[in-house]
Amino acid sequence: MMLILGGTSDSIQLAEELYGLEQTVIYSAATDFGDITASKRFKGKRIYGRKSLDELEKTIIENNIKIIVDATHPFAVNISHNAISVCASLGLEYIRYERPTKQLSDDRIIYFDNYDATGEYADNLKDGKIFITTGTNDIEKLIDRITDKNRIIARVLPISESIITLEGLGLNAENIIAMKGPFSEEMNYTMFKETGSEILISKDSGDQGGYQEKVRAAKRLNMKILVIRRPNIIYPNKFDSIEDVHKYVINIMKA
């Protein structure tokens, strides 16, 4: 039995392909929203819910999991750490799929290693609306560093959990755009322009995460672009293409 830890569009594609190869596949999403999204494409067994180390181990044992494919978001560090740890302790096969990325070279792009430094830099710029596209995980580390909350425009998923989180951080309807992507370059351009935004804050989420479309739109408006680098995790067995994961799994099954 194989467990795929997902939550991204490419993780669902990966699950579909591996399900066609070996139908004993379980797809796990962190939220019910992720599960609903996966249900439209993946026909195998699905589970959802954020899992602690102990909860993940229980799920693995109950479902007789032998292989874990970690295809979670590049910034979902907790579940990746837990998966690596559980696989090591139980002697299971761990495979990491991470969507590819490349650091863009441009004077308008400034890279940061964490949310706190990014928020402080944006606050020190003083003027201009700040368009945040990082999602709500750890967003308080950004918002807490920005003195004038009226400068903030946060684009998040249109789910109650996201709205409640932002309201709890001092934002109101004027500061929130609740929409589901993907967003084209033109859609980003329109949003940035209509909100009068001069600063973009984004995570390095890769091409599948709409990163390039945001950056290109921001460049057209001569915005400052603040990018949070991916966490530095040493993944065992890491691949950056679905095809390579597919081939690796086939070889495991043949062994």
Task: Provide a descriptive summary of the structure in words.
The protein is an alpha/beta fold and 255 residues long. The chain has two domains: 2-100 and 233-254, NAD(P)-binding Rossmann-like Domain (Rossmann fold, 3-Layer(aba) Sandwich), CATH 3.40.50.720; 109-228, Rossmann fold, CATH 3.40.50. Helix content is 40%, strand content 20%. The protein is built from ten helices and twelve strands. The chain has helices spanning 9-21, 32-39, 53-62, 77-90, 115-124, 139-143, 160-168, 185-194, 211-220, 242-254; strands spanning 2-5, 25-29, 45-48, 67-70, 93-97, 109-112, 129-132, 152-156, 176-178, 197-203, 224-228, 238-239. The strands form two sheets. The chain has a six-stranded parallel beta sheet with strand order 3-2-1-4-5-12, with helices on both faces. The protein has a six-stranded parallel beta sheet with strand order 6-11-10-7-8-9, with helices on both faces. Helix 8 (185-194) crosses helix 9. The longest helix is centred in the N-terminal third of the chain and has 14 residues, at 77-90. The protein is elongated. The model has no long low-confidence stretch (mean pLDDT 91).
Question: Roughly how much helix do the residues carry, as a percent range?
Answer: 40-55%
Tally of domains: 2
- Sheet-strand content, in percent, reads 15-25%
Q: How many β-strands, per DSSP?
A: 12
Mean pLDDT: 91
**Could you state the order of secondary-structure elements as H and E?**
EHEHEHEHEEHEHEHEHEHEEH
Structural class: alpha/beta
